[in-house]
Design brief:
The protein is built from twelve helices and five strands. It is mainly α. The two termini are 64 Å apart.
Length: 415
């Protein structure tokens, strides 16, 4: 027997075209025929025999390329759908293994087809060459296809942690924490103001009772009466009115400063949200650009829509809190003129002339009426409610939660 080489293709391209996700396997295709020596000599000189074998071999070879290319294109389109829906590399690789299994099965079919094709060609030749009918041939077919693989890495992009905007998210939570502390301080100061107001009222009530007593026409007599009434009260003298008033003014000034700071702190949280959005979407755009998905614009649009939806709720909460702080601030500001006037009147309690008693009495009456506008308990309650709202807002800026919501239903969805 002598071997006759019919065809020998090495690393032949399948010709599937521009695959987006799959690497195209190469095809090795070889057919040899063991011919009897008597036939081998004539075969070398017989173009008809050679052409018959080659025609069969090329037909099977082209069929193998065409059918494999069709399947590769079909799977590539299927992968596109999987990847655009956010399938991870593990799921896609499982399907790639299926592709290679299909190709492997097809190779076995092409091998059998080649063997049968060459056998038929030999039988047809024997009909034309009767002297060959007593001879048999042995067909050797070797077909090998390299494995198809993923042209891109999906896992690295889909599973690596997100960090865009993480710093901004942490900063926002820091602002919220500071806002909570300020709200607590304001509520405490409001209660202190309420206590200072009551102290002023108590002191003034005692002084008023003393100066209205008959026969008290001199400073020492007023002081003696006030001293008697103030027994058991800290600093039993007219000076306690001034001391209580100083406390009231200091607490009020501190409250104004703290409410300003709270409003600015909450506004920083809003500004931080804009920074968070900018940085998060910048990373999203970069990842989408590198991802094999063909729906890049659609995926980025969906991520932005998800992000905006999640952050809109958080932003609304902050805006609502800023509004409440503003309303409370307007109310507190109405105290300013009264605090100033009250301070002037209390100052007049330093009686230096008996003739000033009339003015003193009128001042006392005014002071008692003026303090009625203060409502520290109400301010403290309202600010405590704002503080509770600020604490609740913090949960909206947990970075993992933001990322999860923003990527929901996209190619990066880990679910």
């Amino acid at each position: 027997m002598a071997k006759y080489l019919v065809i020998d293709m090495k690393k032949a391209k399948i010709g599937a075209g521009n695959l987006k996700f799959l690497t195209e396997p190469n095809l090795d295709f070889k057919i040899e025929v063991d011919l009897p020596k008597e036939v081998e000599k004539e075969a070398a000189k017989d173009p008809l025999l050679q052409q018959e074998f080659k025609d069969v071999a090329l037909k099977i070879f082209e069929m193998a390329k065409t059918e494999t290319a069709k399947k590769l294109k079909a799977f590539d389109a299927y992968f596109e759908g999987m990847i655009n829906k956010g399938a991870d590399e593990k799921a896609v690789q499982k399907q790639v293994d299926t592709v290679n299994s299909v190709i492997k099965n097809d190779v076995a079919i092409y091998k059998l087809a080649a063997e049968q094709g060459i056998d038929k060609a030999w039988t047809d030749l024997q009909k034309k060459r009767k002297e060959w009918t007593k001879f048999k041939i042995k067909v050797g077919v070797s077909i090998f296809a390299t494995l198809a693989g993923l042209a891109v890495s999906i896992a690295a992009m889909a599973s690596s942690p997100w960090s865009g905007g993480a710093g901004a998210a942490f900063a926002i939570i820091g602002f919220i924490k500071a806002g909570t502390t300020l709200a607590q301080d304001i509520a405490r100061i409001a209660m202190d103001i309420d206590a200072a107001k009551k102290q002023v009222e108590i002191n003034l009530a005692v002084v008023e009772k003393a100066v209205e007593s008959k026969g008290l026409n001199a400073l020492n007599e007023v002081s003696a009466a006030v001293f008697k009434e103030f027994l058991g009260i800290s600093q039993p003298s007219v000076k306690t009115c001034g001391s209580a008033m100083d406390t009231l003014k200091a607490k009020y000034a501190q409250m104004i400063v703290n409410v300003h700071d709270l409003a600015k702190t909450l506004n920083k949280a809003l500004e931080g949200q804009q920074k968070l959005k900018k940085e998060f979407l910048a990373q999203a755009a970069e990842r989408v650009k590198k991802h094999p998905t063909t729906d890049k614009a659609g995926q980025l649009k969906k991520i932005q829509a998800n992000f905006d939806k999640e952050m809109a709720t958080a932003g609304d909460k902050i805006m609502e809190l800023i509004g409440k702080v503003g309303t409370l601030y307007d109310k507190i500001k109405t105290w300013a003129k009264t605090v100033a006037d009250l301070g002037k009147r209390v100052k007049e309690l330093e009686i230096k002339d008996p003739k000033a008693l009339k003015v003193f009495r009128e001042a006392l009456k005014f002071c008692m009426l003026a303090t009625s506008i203060f409502d520290g308990n109400k301010i403290a309650t309202d600010m405590s409610n704002i503080g509770t709202g600020i604490i609740a807002a913090a949960s909206s800026y947990v970075y993992d939660k933001i990322t999860s919501k923003a990527l929901e239903g996209t190619i990066f969805d880990a679910a």
